[in-house]
Design brief:
single chain; mainly beta; about 0% helix
Length: about 240
């Protein structure tokens, strides 16, 4: 089954001077119809003005993934080193036993970011931070794994160390990315008991006869195979999570 969430129906949550566009209940945006999708707890879209800050805390037992679509961000969390994130970069903070304060500040050009929170399946671990400056684009326009809680997805496990290795999650989940040329498609297959949540970052796509535009999303349940066709060049993010 596929349920479409249109960009115009997203909620607004307020964090100081920042307004987040939320797919699920978050902060002062509360909607019993949209609380989470399986183990995907949060999907927020935010824009920061130059030098503007966004902060959280305390948080525990969630993997917070921040993917930057434009501009630049600087991350600061507890005792971790400060990290710079550029367009296409991914920052992971696995909060584990607890982070007291997490902060992102925008660079001189501001920042536009998309943030996913996955509920941890491994608890009692210390907080961890990981970053990827960017990921090589697949030549066929297919889905690339950006983050994964499955050891078999990490090429380092097989001695194939590459710069594009996914960041390691404490959640049994995946975050994937695709850039699909116009009139071409991308396919993805998962296993039973999984939920998929597809976000259109840019462009126009069709999925099972449904047309999705920039900002729209599709919640996909009880369906293992998905094919997305781009009507115009499209950028997608896809979350694969346990349904329970």
């Amino acid at each position: 089954m596929i349920t479409i969430r249109r960009a115009a129906t997203l909620g607004n949550a307020h964090s100081d001077t920042l307004i987040l566009r939320c797919h699920f209940a978050f902060a002062d945006y509360q909607d019993p119809s949209y609380t989470h999708d399986g183990r995907l707890r949060v999907l927020n879209l935010g824009k920061l003005a130059p030098a503007q800050r966004y902060y959280l805390g305390p948080e525990a037992n969630v993997d917070i993934l921040t993917w930057l679509s434009a501009g630049s961000l600087i991350s600061n969390a507890d005792d971790f080193e400060q990290e710079d994130i550029g367009p296409g970069g991914l920052h992971l903070l696995s909060t584990g036993t607890g982070c007291q304060r997490i902060e992102w500040s925008a660079g001189l050009a501001g920042a536009a970011f998309i943030q996913f929170w996955f509920m941890a399946d491994v608890e009692g671990v210390l907080p961890a931070q990981e970053i990827r400056a960017s990921f090589p684009q697949l030549e066929d326009g297919g889905f690339r794994i950006l983050a994964s809680g499955f050891p078999e997805d990490d090429p380092e496990e097989e001695g194939q160390i590459t710069d594009g290795a996914p960041v390691a999650l404490t959640a049994r989940a995946r975050l994937l990315h695709a850039v699909i040329p116009a009139a071409e498609g991308a396919a993805y297959s998962t296993t039973l008991g999984r939920d998929l949540y597809l976000l259109v970052v840019s462009g126009i796509v069709t999925i099972n006869g449904n047309v999705l535009r920039c900002g729209d999303a599709a919640a996909i349940t009880d369906q293992q195979d998905v094919v997305v066709i781009a009507q115009e060049k499209a950028v997608l993010l896809l979350a694969d999570v346990s349904a329970k």
